[in-house]
Amino acid sequence: MSLINMAKREINCKIVYYGIGLCGKTTNLHYIHQAVNPHDVGEMVSIDTETERTLYFDLLPLELGKVHGFNIRFQLYTVPGQILYQQTRISVLKGADCVIFVADSQASKLQENIECWNELQEQLRRMNKDASSFPLVMQWNKRDLQDTLPVSVLEKYLNPYRVPSYEAVAVTGKGVIESLRVGINSTLRKLERI
C-alpha cells in the first residue's frame, strides 16, 4: 500500500521485480539507474552474496515530480530468486503497489517460472490482494537467447489475467523502460481510485 505523508505532501509507492534466480531483475534496475536523469534517481543499494546474486533486495529510489501537489516517489525493489530465500521474497513483497514479473524466456526455465508465478499468486492471496486486479506487468526477458519459448507459450502459462506484457532484453534495455512505465501508470491509476 502506498505510504501517504500528508505533512510532507509526499506519496511513496513500491514496485517489486519478482522472478526466478538470474532472470534479469537486478539487470532491469541497473539499466533504469543508468537511463534515468541523475536528478530523479537515488543511489542504488544492493545486498549481494559472494556469487553476486541478490541476497535480500536491490533498491532504486525514483522521483517522478508532483501529482495534485504531492511529490511522487517510487521505490523499486527486486526479490532474491533462489528457492532458499522464499521468506525474504515474502518480506520484500509486503506493501507492494505493483509487481513486475520478470520471466526467463528460455525453454529450460519454464517450469521454474511457473512455480515462481504460482508462489507470487499465493503470496498476493495471503496479503488479501486479488491477483486479477492487482497492478501486474509481465516481462518476457532474455529474448536475445537461442532457446527462447514463443511469447504465446509464455502468455499461456504465465499470464492468465492478460495483464500488459513486454518482450525484453534487460542487458540492452529493450522492454525495460516500457515495463516500468506501465507499472508506474497502473500504480498511479490505483492511487486515483483511493
Features:
alpha/beta, 194 residues, 28% strand, single chain, Rossmann fold, 31% helix, 8-stranded mixed β-sheet
- By DSSP, the count of extended strands is 8
Beta-strand proportion: 25-35%
Kindly state the percentage of residues in helix: 25-40%
> Unreliable stretches, pLDDT < 50, 5 or more residues?
none
Structural class assignment: alpha/beta
Element string (H = helix, E = strand): EEHEEEHEHEHEH
Oligomer description: single chain
CATH superfamily descriptor: P-loop containing nucleotide triphosphate hydrolases
How many separate helices?
A: 5
Question: What is the overall pLDDT average?
Answer: 89
Instruction: Report the CATH architecture.
Output: 3-Layer(aba) Sandwich
CATH topology group: Rossmann fold
Shape category: globular
Query: What's the CATH first level?
Result: Alpha Beta
Radius of gyration: 16 Å
Largest sheet: 8 strands, mixed
Give the N-to-C terminal Cα separation: 11 Å
Number of domains: 1
